Amino acid sequence: MNKSVICPGSFDPVTLGHLDIITRASKMFDRVYVAALVNATKKHCFTPEERMTFMREALQGLDNVEVVSFDGLLAEYCRKHNIDAIVKGLRAVSDFEYEFQMAIANKRLNPQLETIFLTSDADFTYLSSSMVREIGAYGGDISNFVPACVHDRIVQRLRESK
Ligand code: PNS
Q1: Predicted TM-score (pTM) of this structure
Q2: Is the dihedral of CA 142, 51, 130, 16 positive or negative?
Q3: Ligand 1 site residues, Cβ closer than 6 angstroms
């Protein structure tokens, strides 16, 4: 069976926690779409193009993974592209309520669409993009939090945006 899934998120910016979830999903499914999207409830720091570029570079070498972006509903995109499921990482109970709400809403919008949660690796349960943005903006060391290949550009942008 040929199963495709999508890992959606703001990825503002990509963290090692995101990479871990996507890498694990790429071993479980035939095709993985990574969607760098707009979250209407958040003000993004990096542009959609930057978020996609960083993600593409960080995921180089994973042949069944494709980075995409679109303006519209995730549930509709999945219907149009025959995507079977959404994959999201769960770091802690605090993530659950928000993710559960989105999973139910997406299923109402597209009843064929499942949401699958992967538990975050213990090394990354504390890690979030907002934490990276704050530490980076104050000149702190974010090298343990973001992929090495995009580290310098993220650092520079965060310093500029302060
Ligand atoms: O990383 P985030 O900010 O938690 O990701 C949230 C995201 C981008 C996955 C969500 O806001 C989303 O799916 N946006 C696309 C528009 C959409 O379908 N909204 C309804 C979600 S129920």
Answers
A1: 0.96
A2: negative
A3: 8-10, 37, 39, 42, 73-74, 102, 105-106
